[in-house]
Amino acid sequence: MDRIRYILSWILWPALMTICMVGTAYGFAAGYPIITFNICYMFLIVSLFFLEKWMPHEREWLKPDGQNFASIMHTLSSKGSVQLLFMFSGVIGLAEFITPASEPGFGIWPREWPMWLQVMMGVTLAEFGLYWVHRLGHTTAFMWRFHAVHHSVTKLWFLNTGRFHFIDSLASIIIGLMILLPLGAPMEVVQWLTVITAFIGMLTHCNVEMRFGPLNYIFNTPSLHRWHHSRELFEGNRNYCENVMIWDHVFGTFYHAEYRPPADIGMSDYMPEKFWYQLIWPFLSVKKKQELAPDYEYKPFGYEDRAESEAKRLAKLEAMRGAAE
Ligand SMILES: [Zn+2]
Ligand SMILES: [Zn+2]
Q: For residues 16 and 6, what is the distance between their CA atoms, to the nearest angstrom?
């Protein structure tokens, strides 16, 4: 049985990704992209649900953390607010921007290229925006208020995938579109970007024991994202890319070490337990937070000290080597 698990650990990520992508591509070709995408997405969720129980990466993360309702509600409110943005895009003037931008002849986008190549370019270019929204979410006090909701969990599993404050989700979507649409990217490229982000995002948060080898240097794998959820800033303020790791390599924030990522994940900041409190938390003053939560403790936003981080990283490597000898 262990041998089957070992073999599966190598093939699961590429196999699941391939099945979902081929299925959705078939849907696009047949003219039913939305329904086939949803079938593939459900297939991925159900597969991960059972795999997490059968071959978990961390057994500790199988225990309940009391955050299921909050995570589902954040997922729904994030998806809902993105839908609303598109529904009311006419009212706020966004439609006048989106419609001509996605029509042929607009911008410098090479529409004559094969679709797979256009999608690869779209994913890479949009990633630049996603990278910076995410990085600023960790390095500026204002944006961290919203992004902290995602990092307040103490375990990783598929249900955390969509757990974002809706302001955080809107910022990523808007910046991603602001890169692709002015260049004249067709709607099909934008749809594929959404599909790929959904599949890769679901996989990055799963608690399934998987191995990746060289894939870790190209895609955002669960193994890379576990560093990103570390409490230690030298591990956590790394791997900001959502789908492909290119901009982490370019801007020097890629992190992948030879020791095991921490099981004790989360953040040092306070986050209330209840969904509605989490939703309004970023908008509240310190005084209001103290009133609402007696155990709340004010902590100034901490910047990462790179020298200190490097020393911690070396100490960790040293300790690991010492233990191995
Ligand atoms: Zn983050
Ligand atoms: Zn995450």
A: 16
